[in-house]
Write a structure and sequence with these properties.
CATH topology of the largest domain: Jelly Rolls
Number of domains: 2
Order of helices and strands: HEEEEEEEEEEHHHHHHHHHH
CATH superfamily of the largest domain: Jelly Rolls
Structural class: alpha+beta
Distance between the termini: 43 Å
Oligomer: single chain
Number of helices: 11
Shape: elongated
Radius of gyration: 23 Å
CATH architecture of the largest domain: Sandwich
Helix content: 40-55%
Length: about 300
């Protein structure tokens, strides 16, 4: 049997054999074996990252499991419920959005009496210690949900999960961004130098792009609205886009134009008039829409609709 991402598993034996021992390198002791269920979503294949939802119980690595030689720092993030975390003789409780580092080479556990969801992001111990020599002191320190670096890191992981990069060079860049951003989660995050700052900028830009991708059809979407959503100034957000080679306005406009192109190419006849298409994707000035469309695609909206030309 193989694991289907997102599919619910109701057998504790299957969970242990297929997920726990093979994918997550841990075991699970359910509150009630008869009522056990679990779902796991790997995100994505080139990262050791997974989102796990399960019935009440305890996920753990015991003395037998730690002999597998796996040595990473696992950032455990509570996504739903309240999770009791135990390692190194200490116990902390994570509320929704809170996180803590654990080390997989040591015995430890995550537990809840009721169903819960957590996301685990794995950082190779040697790599993290190279960037932050005191990283081992971060284990079992609660990282509050309000921590900006944590929120941005989770948004970045979610974005990568929705559109996993296929280019190995881009995959390496993503791994580097996550690793460098992890250094900002330690108690002394003032350590951040140029590499970590660069990753933080990349994650802020990614968070902004995610918001725009969800809301670009709103006519009044502005740099101020998006900046406020991620807690930065409008001018700083504009600089992030400019450093990436495209202004905020250009980015929003291109998303709207490509959405309009897709609608005009639709064969179902439901796109409506060209004016309706332009208004529907967020343009309020039809003349500006027509000029921008022709500048990007080299054809008028009317020509694209009638000729079915593919965009460059």
């Amino acid at each position: 049997m193989t694991l289907t991402p997102g599919k619910s598993i109701s057998s504790i034996k299957v969970w242990r054999d297929i997920v726990g021992r093979r994918l997550l390198n841990l075991d699970f002791d359910p509150v009630s074996p008869e009522e056990f269920w679990a779902k796991v979503e790997p995100i994505p294949s080139h990262l050791r990252t997974a989102r796990v939802s399960q019935s009440g119980g305890c996920s753990f690595r015991d003395a037998e499991l730690v002999r597998d030689g796996d040595d990473v720092y696992s950032l455990a993030v509570c996504r739903r419920g309240r999770i009791r975390v135990i390692q190194r003789g200490r116990e902390i409780v994570l509320g929704q959005g809170d996180a803590a580092f654990l080390r997989t080479s040591e015995i430890g556990s995550l537990a809840s009496a009721t169903s819960f969801t957590h996301c685990s992001i794995m950082f190779p111990a040697a790599d993290l210690l190279r960037l932050a020599p005191d990283a081992d002191q971060w284990v079992m320190r609660r990282i509050p949900a309000r921590t900006e670096a944590l929120r941005l890191l989770m948004a970045y992981v979610g974005s990568v999960g929705r559109q996993p990069p296929q280019d190995p060079a881009v995959q390496d860049m993503v791994r580097r961004h996550l690793l460098e951003a992890a250094t900002l989660l330690g108690p002394d995050n003032g350590r951040a130098g140029a590499p970590a700052d660069s990753s933080l900028r990349a994650m802020r830009l990614c968070a902004a792009q995610d918001i725009i991708a969800q809301r670009f059809c709103e006519p009044d979407l502005s740099v101020a609205v998006v900046a406020a959503s991620i807690g930065i100034s409008p001018r700083y957000l504009q600089r992030l886009f400019e450093c990436a080679g495209q202004s905020f306005t250009q980015h929003v406009s291109e998303l709207r134009l490509r959405a309009a192109y897709a609608l005009l190419q639709s064969d179902d006849g439901n796109a409506g008039r060209i004016t309706d298409v332009a208004l529907g994707v967020g343009f309020s000035d039809i003349s500006h829409f027509n000029r921008s469309f022709r500048r990007l695609f080299g054809e008028t909206p009317t020509a694209v609709r009638s000729r079915g030309i593919k965009p460059h």
